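To: structure subgroup
Subject: Chain for Friday's discussion

All,

I'm putting the inputs and outputs inline so they're searchable in the archive.
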Amino acid sequence: MHAPVTVREFETVARDRLHPAHYDYFAGGAGDEITVRANEAAFARLALLPRVLRGAGRPRTETTLLGSRVATPVLVAPTAFHRLADPEGEKATARAAAAAGTIMIVSMAATVAVGDVAAAAPGATLWFQLYIQPDMAFTEAIVRRAEAAGCTALVVTVDSPARGRHDRDVRNGFDDLPEGMRCENLRDDDRVSDGDGDGDGDGGAGPVRSIVMSPEISWEHVDLLRRMTSLPIVLKGVTHPADARLAVEHGVSAVYVSNHGGRQLDTVPAAVELLPEIVAAVGGAVPVLVDGGIRRGTDVVKALALGASAVAVGRPVIWGLAADGERGVSRVLGLLRDEVEHALTLCGVASVHDLEPGLVRRC
């Protein structure tokens, strides 16, 4: 087979190389996976309406997010268990993200401790994804580890008062990581990372907790977190305009539109369909990010035109990692970058900052 030339072709290679249960874990979603399919299908219902004779020149894709420069506004979304896809796991992903000049959001459920991810990719811009735990002392310990690793923002996932029901995982009996692999950020002591980049924490010291999904987590916990850290807080999993307005009122630094890749509540609308209402609700007070179903540079351009400051990609990164490790992730991010630049050129747009809703039509 030829080398993959699209994100979807990377998925084909990844499916062949991953254990079937692990492929299903990454690819699957909640319930009948209606939302999983809707995320991609929604982009196909959006058309680009290009302008001509603009004299725009080669387009500029650079932007700034919460004080960090990115070469292209395509971030690495938080996804768990990268070592299921490649032995180097999150270390390989972080190096590829750094080489691409973008931000990696390290999952709380990473299989490499955040300190070791940072050590393996010097100069990488890392944000840390967090589920607020009912045990706020443990939550604070995790926040301190992220701060010590040099993470420059917290991405707080708020759409998970309970775990999504994944029928594929039930059928496959997939309910735990293989022997010798754990969620290293959840070690219940201060020895999560020895900083040598080998991903083994402190020789495996300290028991590992489970992530607790609690329906008791509220805006009060967001306020507690804001008092706990000076890091910017990005609220991930916002789908309702009223919650976007509340997020601004509670002082978050960015709103992240996401239906968790269709992995939480099935039949939630596609994220890109919700994006314009969230952008309107925020009213320019904070940046808006979006993920879900992005497979082409044209998808990125559509989301940016509808008001997103940046997008994030999760499954495409995993496909690249499973296909060819760090090089595969680099290739996926490079493909999306090149496709974004090409789409901007054909739309007659000089910069990602010049995109506007009038370039998008619903069909």
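Points worth raising on Friday:
The chain is about 40% helix and 15% strand.
The CA atoms of residues 6 and 335 lie 7 Å apart.

D.
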